[in-house]
Design brief:
The protein has about 280 residues and is of the alpha/beta class. It has one domain: Metal-dependent hydrolases (TIM Barrel, Alpha-Beta Barrel), CATH 3.20.20. Helices cover about 40% and strands about 15% of the residues. The protein is built from nine helices and eight strands. An eight-stranded parallel β-sheet has the order 1-2-3-4-5-6-7-8. α2 links the parallel β2 and β3. α3 runs parallel beside α4 and α6 packs parallel to α7. The radius of gyration is 17 Å and the shape is globular.
Length: about 280
């Protein structure tokens, strides 16, 4: 099975996305399932996971309705207010009844406090998440958040976490430390996974697999293929490429790997992690 473990939809006429402003150019418009469907078919994709694009219940409800309408949607990563643990419990009692909701994400990189995710009330909210067997997608945009993952793994040891976009390594500047050390520290916790996704928008304008290779090879070294999964990050990917180029270059990154490693990264890990 081939799984795109990280894609988005948004409708600017139905919902508000405070981060999405005209300066984002080509992605400042509505993107919905009918536009993605032929691209998935062309890539041979079996399932996708829709990931939240707004800290709002309305976004979660919108994604769940989309999942019900399209058989190729395998799961949804929604949103609950993690800093209000009592409300998290009440909402998850309802949301957990929906088989499409697999996990939760919060746009922590939009918070003014870079340490928001390790606030005591957020830790309590994450404990409720683990109680419902929901996973946590971590928007660990380097350099502010990746360093907190070992703390989260220690305080909420039964919480399954996945780092989005390998925490956006400094690819364009050919940077390495402290990103590499922090990624290895995160990978030391067996409940922490990561997504090979969103790397093209951290790379130079004329990027290719060659520019990303060092970073993905290192991720495979510290996590192993069984804790890594592919994601297109569509439509954000359009900022520096398109769906086809991301899929093509990801496959190029994995050339020379074993069939087991390739199958894990391109689908198997996502099936297991998100219980697809």
């Amino acid at each position: 099975m081939r799984v795109d473990a990280h894609q988005h939809f948004w409708n600017l006429e139905k919902l508000s996305y405070p981060w999405l402003i005209p300066a984002y150019g080509p992605i400042f418009r509505t993107f919905e399932a009918p536009e993605l469907e032929p691209q998935l078919r062309s890539a041979g994709m079996d399932k996708t996971v829709i990931v939240q694009a707004a800290n709002a219940f309305e976004d979660t409800d919108y994604m769940l309705k989309t999942a019900e309408a399209y058989e190729w949607v395998g799961g949804v990563v929604g949103w609950v207010p993690l800093d209000r643990p009592d409300e998290v419990f009440r909402k998850l009692e309802l949301y957990a009844k929906n088989p499409y909701l697999k996990g939760v994400r919060h746009l922590i990189h939009e918070e003014s406090d870079p340490d928001w995710v390790i606030r005591p009330e957020v830790i309590e909210g994450l404990k409720v998440l683990a109680q419902f067997n929901m996973s946590f997608d971590v928007v660990a945009v380097f350099p502010n958040h990746l360093k907190h993952i070992p703390t989260l793994a220690e305080k909420v040891p039964n919480l399954r976490m996945v780092i989005d976009h390998l925490a956006k390594p400094p690819i364009k500047d050919r940077g390495w430390e402290p990103w590499a050390g922090q990624l290895a520290a995160a990978a030391a916790s067996p409940n922490v996974y990561a997504k090979i996704s969103g790397l093209n928008t951290a790379a130079s304008e004329n990027w290719s697999a060659a520019e990303l290779q060092r970073y993905t090879d290192y991720a495979i070294e510290v996590f192993g293929a069984s804790r890594l999964m592919f994601g297109s990050d569509w439509p954000v990917a359009i900022l520096n490429g398109d769906y086809a180029s991301v899929w093509r270059e990801t496959n190029a990154l994995l050339e020379g790997r074993t069939r087991e490693e390739i199958d894990a990264i391109l689908g198997g890990t996502a099936v297991e992690f998100y219980r697809l």
